[in-house]
Amino acid sequence: MPIEQGATSSATARIIGAPIMSLTLDPEGTTIVLGARGEVDMSNADGLVTVVERLAGGRPLRLVLDLSAVTFFSAHGVSALLRARTIVTGTGGELVLRDISRTVEHVLTLTGVHPGFGLESRSCVPGADRPDVTRCVAGHAVPSSGGEHRG
Hints:
Blueprint: E1 7-10, E2 14-15, E3 18-19, E4 21-28, E5 31-40, H1 45-56, E6 62-73, H2 75-90, E7 94-98, H3 102-111, E8 118-120, E9 133-137, E10 140-143
Parallel strand pairs: 5-6, 6-7, 7-8
Antiparallel strand pairs: 1-4, 2-3, 4-5, 9-10
Helix pairs in contact: 1-2
């Protein structure tokens, strides 16, 4: 599925005409970054899953969910992330959470699902600044040689 640089989408749930959650899509090489802004709750969490289903389309995909601008995150958001991970990994792909907000981190920690997700930060994007970096662990770059580098 071709994706236009900077493509945006907004969930249908609205309060007084303003979207509760908006989504952005940005390709980064072979990775797709899906950014969420605002509130992820029962009114729109299914919309997030629907977007992930369409992006995955039954093929392997490296999907990064940028949750840095999420201001509210309910149990429905947790469920949506778990479903998204199942969809992406079920096709042989990888789902990574980038720059999770403190709100998201708090809820994921309370529910015990935090360790089940790969995490990265903008300061640690594999191959972006350092070609020797093949993955990030807890937001820190791990060079392909296996030694850890604080990025």
